[in-house]
Amino acid sequence: MKTVDAHLAEILGAVRPLDPVQVDLDSALGATLAEDVASPVALPPFDNSAMDGYAVRAEDVAGAGEEAPVVLPVTLDVAAGDTARRAVERGFVTRIMTGAPVPEGADAVVPVEWTDGGTVKVAIRRTPPPGNAIRRSGEDVRAGDVVLPAGTVIGPAQLGILAGVGRRAVLAHPRPRVVVLSTGAELVEPGTPLGHGQIWESNSFTLVAAVRQAGGEASRRGAVGDDPAAFSATLDALLGEADAVITSGGISMGAYEPVKEALSPLGTVRFEKVAMQPGMPQGFGLLGDRQVPIFTLPGNPVSSYVSFMLFVKPALARMRGLPAGPPVTVTATTAAALRSPAGRRSFLRGVLTRRDGAASVTPVHGQGSHQLAALAGANALIVVPENVTELPEGADVEVIPL
Questions:
Q1: Which of the 8 DSSP states describes residue 118?
Q2: Could you count the other beta carbons within 10 Å of the beta carbon of residue 354?
Q3: CA 267 – CA 286 distance, rounded (Å)
Q4: Taking 90 as the threshold, does the pLDDT of residue 50 lie above it?
Q5: CA-to-CA distance for 94 and 76, rounded, in angstroms?
Q6: What is the H or E stretch that residue 199 is in?
Q7: How far is CA 366 from the centre of its chain?
Q8: Strands (E), 280-343
Q9: What average pLDDT is seen over the chain?
Q10: What DSSP line would sit under 48-101, residue for residue?
Q11: Half-sphere exposure of 275 (CA within 13 A, CB side)
Q12: Average pLDDT over every residue of 359-383
């Protein structure tokens, strides 16, 4: 059987980052920058007030105190957005609002809380040091500074700085569009009545959520039955709108395996056994002129999800223009003895806890590949290597946090 590492290496060797496109800021969340973004101006672009108060010459209010306030006339108001050139003469103050440009001549702002709040004249009861409550031009960003390098994933804060330096669109790798398709004649939509021999379809909901959590855009299609021709027709209709396709089910060794029967003749999708548990049957390939990656995952719910974490999630990272490799692991102590079949890398579901700097992991009850409730109660996968069949309680193990 093929190793887990070899299968992942083959996938990562085949997928490529999506071509960069100009992405409007309204659609850029989750995209990956493909350019360095520099600020054309200093931020802030002008000295401005950090507080509501009074712009003053610090020397005019030296010695002000509660018992001996300094009283000065107020000449005018300066609000945020004021574009006129203003100045403070010696012996006068200007009332100023947060974000407003600091008038020429002023070298400090007295917060309104240090005064009596006067509008014609004001009593100042504390002495501000020079520079008090003034945001200096360029103290955040200098003109020409790179504020975000290529390879940055755009989140809320990144969107803020992009807008703050005047960008309306950026060159970025977009989020991959992924279509999820389940197969099986026994599958019916949740919310509809179950007939004899039927089950509610759940894999596509799990996989769509996993794609979105991994930074992709995902959509699901209603389950296809066991007819290879119907599967092919559905898949062909989807390829034009997808950067990647994920299927679940239909790839095992028995009869009525529509995914395998439909794709094997193409010669571009390989179906193999991977030395892992759960999730031994796997398939991967490229489809059509656009070379759209297709990940054909097993149909058992746990097998499908584990396969996504090991193989699809790293591939989506590569497509997003990010570093890609095996899932990150942490070391933990197992709270129970573990068993694993010889020759296969096991991914047991467990609950990872951290306390006082130490991590421990407890396997959940119900390790079958069909036991979705047990998976829902887990937050980690316990990795047992291929050459290990038993581990005692208290042994150190590698764990993939979910």
A1: -
A2: 11
A3: 10
A4: yes
A5: 5
A6: strand 199-200
A7: 30
A8: 281-287, 292-297, 330-334, 338-339
A9: 95
A10: EESSSEEEE-GGGGTT--SSS-EEEEEEEEE-TT--S--B--TT-EEEE-TTPB
A11: 16
A12: 92
**CA-CA-CA-CA torsion sign (292, 297, 301, 306):** negative
Task: Place 143 in a pLDDT band, splitting at 50, 70 and 90.
Answer: very high
pLDDT at 256: 73
Confidence of residue 303 (pLDDT cuts 50, 70, 90): very high
Q: Using CA of residue 278, residue 221, residue 327, residue 19, what is the dihedral sign?
A: positive
Considering the entire predicted model, what is its pTM? 0.89
Q: Does residue 84 contact residue 26 with C-beta atoms inside 8 Å?
A: no
Amino acid at site 119: T
How far is residue 331 from each of residues 328, 383, 398, measured CA to CA in Å?
A: 10, 10, 5
Write the pLDDT tens digit of every residue in 220-268.
Answer: 988 898 889 999 999 999 888 899 999 999 998 766 789 999 999 999 9
Distance CA 50, CA 136 (A): 10
- Which amino acid makes up residue 154? I
Q: Strand pairing partners for 49?
A: 134
Cα separation values, 93 from 118, 124, 180, 402, Å:
11, 10, 66, 59
401's tokens: 């946090």
Place of tokens 């092919």: 232
Measured in whole angstroms, the distance separating CA 78 from the mean position of its chain's CA atoms is 42
Question: Which helix (H) or strand (E) covers residue 14, if one does?
Answer: helix 4-14
Cα separation, 274 vs 279, in Å, equals 8
- Indicate the SS3 state at residue 129: coil
